[in-house]
Amino acid sequence: MAFYSVNRRFVAGLALAGFMLAAAGCQSSDNGILNFGFSKKDPTAPLPPQDPKVLASQLRAYCPKVTLRDGTAFFNTYAKGAAAKPKKKKADAAAETDAAAAGAAAQTGPDGQPVDPNRDPAKIVYQASITDVTRDCTHENGQLTMKIAVAGKVVPGPQFTPGTITMPIRVAVQHGTDVLYSQLHQYQVQVTDPSAATQFVFSDANVVVPEPAATDYQAYAGYDENTPATADKSKGKRKKRAAAAATN
């Protein structure tokens, strides 16, 4: 009988403890954190608002990555002009044919492909290349100011002579197809050792564009050989004046 009485008390204690836990669970405000299946979330309850400061801080920390377009990482300079050709003497047809064949062979590279006389490797003055790019950004007064830097080296070629070389380096920032900034720099480097590469670092600290509304700006840096040279209009005017004076 004693065992039966103790057992009944034990079962009653368990039931009372379970009831108290269930009541505590119903009265708690854990919002489902301690949900053991006794309650369901309210589907109409609004989601907690997102903190807009996270997005703003990410945007203010945004600094567009600088990339190199295809074909803009290298720049070669070739010697201009050629030695004066001696006047040809009269020769028979066979000799002229042999001379033409020899000239064609001279314009063929080691791989058998024709060589552009304006791109002859034997006439390279120097080869320049960009090896690394970096940037730094500042957000202020509704503007994004960037400092874009490139590092590279200059390797002397067969036609090199010590002196100052000029490299056309363009820095640009775009938003989709809109060009926000574009500047061509004629950067000069002093090269004196024809037997070793010369390192250089170029930077443009004046890249200023409107503050971006999203992380979708594209920044570029590289060589630009396609910019047409500015014609010297004064020379043309002098020639015209000389021609007019000669006719008078």
Characterization of the model:
By secondary structure, the protein is α+β, with helices and mostly antiparallel strands. The protein has helices at residues 2-27, 52-60, 93-106, 233-247; strands spanning 66-67, 74-78, 124-140, 143-156, 163-175, 178-191, 198-210, 218-223. The protein starts with a helix and ends with a helix. Mean pLDDT is 74; it is low at 25-34, 82-91 and 228-239.
Topology:
Layout: H1 2-27, H2 52-60, E1 66-67, E2 74-78, H3 93-106, E3 124-140, E4 143-156, E5 163-175, E6 178-191, E7 198-210, E8 218-223, H4 233-247
Instruction: Provide the gyration radius in Å.
Output: 39 Å
The parts where pLDDT drops under 50 for at least 5 residues are: 25-34, 82-91, 228-239
Total E-strand runs = 8
The best one-word shape is elongated
Our count of helices gives 4
Structural class: alpha+beta
Element-by-element helix/strand order: HHEEHEEEEEEH
**What proportion of the residues form beta strands (DSSP E)?**
25-35%
Q: Give the proportion of residues in helices.
A: 25-40%
Largest sheet strand order:
1-8-5-6
- N- to C-terminal separation? 147 Å
Overall pLDDT score: 74
State the major sheet: 4 strands, mixed
Protein name: Lipoprotein
Organism: Mesorhizobium album
Signal peptide: 1-17
Region (Disordered): 101-120, 223-248
